[in-house]
């Protein structure tokens, strides 16, 4: 997990930065996929949480070293409806002895205010914005789109 979620973005950034710096204007951005678990910790996810917290540090380091022309940002979401998530819903339902609908409504989306999972295309659109010239002041920051999960936690 650390190799994929933390070392790979670090290594890719090392490879990409010289190419951005070599452009005529040296302007560019590196966007990292984070998670609400990059902001807080829950049980039974320590490796994932460590990776996402480290990714926040990498993102801020890119911004600090980018001298204003190279931006770093991250996108933090709650639950995204991917094939991996579908398997996790099924496994959680079996393990807890509840329905898949209860897993989605109570376990995953229970703390959020938006009661549906994001789609991968919605996440992609956040990166399109973050990488665009419209987000020139998004530098070292984190776009949090989690349905109110982290800001309205009960």
What's the topology here?
Layout: H1 2-21, E1 28-33, H2 46-65, E2 70-77, H3 83-96, H4 100-108, H5 120-131, E3 142-145
Parallel strand pairs: 1-2, 2-3
Helix pairs in contact: 1-2, 3-4
In short:
It contains five helices and three strands, in the order αβαβαααβ. By secondary structure, the protein is mainly alpha-helical. Helix 1 packs parallel to helix 2 and helix 3 crosses helix 4.
Tell me, briefly, the overall form: elongated
What's the overall average pLDDT, rounded? Answer: 91
Give the fraction of residues assigned to helices.
40-55%
Number of strands: 3
Strand order in space, largest sheet: 1-2-3
What is the CATH fold-level name of the domain at 2-77 and 138-145?
A: Rossmann fold
| Uncertain segments | none
Largest sheet: 3 strands, parallel
CATH architecture of the domain at 2-77 and 138-145: 3-Layer(aba) Sandwich
Supply Rg.
17 Å
Strand percentage lies at: 5-15%
CA-to-CA gap between the ends?
Answer: 29 Å
Which structural class should the secondary elements be placed in? mainly alpha
- Number of helices, where a helix is a run of at least 4 consecutive DSSP H or I residues: 5
Q: In the CATH hierarchy, what is the class of the domain at 2-77 and 138-145?
A: Alpha Beta
Report the order of strands and helices.
Answer: HEHEHHHE
Can you identify the CATH superfamily of the domain at 2-77 and 138-145?
A: NAD(P)-binding Rossmann-like Domain
């Amino acid at each position: 997990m650390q190799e994929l979620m933390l070392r790979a973005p670090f290594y890719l950034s090392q490879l990409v930065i010289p190419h951005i710096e070599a452009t005529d204007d040296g302007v560019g951005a590196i966007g990292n996929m984070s998670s609400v678990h990059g902001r807080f910790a829950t049980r039974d996810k320590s490796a994932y949480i460590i990776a996402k917290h480290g990714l926040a540090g990498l993102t801020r380091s890119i911004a600090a070293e980018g001298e204003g022309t190279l931006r770093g940002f991250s996108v933090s979401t709650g639950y995204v409806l991917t094939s991996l998530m579908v398997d996790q819903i099924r496994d959680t339902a079996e393990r807890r002895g509840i329905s898949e609908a209860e897993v989605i409504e109570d376990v995953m989306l229970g703390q959020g205010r938006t009661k549906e999972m994001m789609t991968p295309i919605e996440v992609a659109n956040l990166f399109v914005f973050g990488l665009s010239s419209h987000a020139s002041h998004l530098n070292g920051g984190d776009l949090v789109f989690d349905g109110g999960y982290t800001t309205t936690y009960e």
